[in-house]
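step: validate -> pass
step: tokenize input -> pass
step: predict -> running
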Amino acid sequence: MAGEIIYGANAVREALQQPERINRILVAKESRVPACKALVDTAKQHKVLVDFVPQAKLNTLTGTREHQGIMAQISPLEYTELDALIAGCGPEATILVLDRVQHPKNLGMIIRSAVGAGVAGIVLASRGGALLDESVVRASAGTVLRVPIAACPNLSQALKKLRGADFWIYGLDAGGKCNAFTLSWPQRVVLVAGNESEGMRPGVQKNCDEIVSIPLANELDSLNVAVATSIVLFQIR
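step: predict -> pass
step: emit ->
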């Protein structure tokens, strides 16, 4: 399940025509190839993750020294269209939406819990967060293959579409006024969880019907996003 690796300036430039397919770009710290800087700038405009690594690492990953100082890893898994994901939902369904969860391990752990909690599907932000790659597959213990996952460039529009399909939208945030344990959850639920450090973006939060939180003891202010999301998903179930 390792991601497909492509390398060389032309190949990476071509891949950036569809940035949502790129998990990350690796650039050699020692690179002096002029095209690399332009590609890095383009990648950042599209919020594609860029890592700067020793050239020796690129040599190992690509199996060649002819990589021109740049490579990209493309997701090996196909994403589901949001319309198809919605069409596959029954009258009682939970969909998880993740707004730019950054760390592949967190994403993999969340996916594993979501599968265990019986979610009907997962929606990811196609830019600015972790996407499906080998590390996510490993962290999810392979359960990523058991649930339809959509990657959407505009989560606000995706939430509006889900609301139009009779889903109620609940954002998860430590500052939420609604207790996740006492809420009477409706039959069709969308749970939105945000970035590890910044939470949900304002535009995404604005599209939530309610903001829920987990009551914590001992003056603890928050939980890891994977832990918090898992708790609430099982509470919904």
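step: describe -> The CA atoms of residues 194 and 201 lie 7 Å apart.
step: cleanup -> pass
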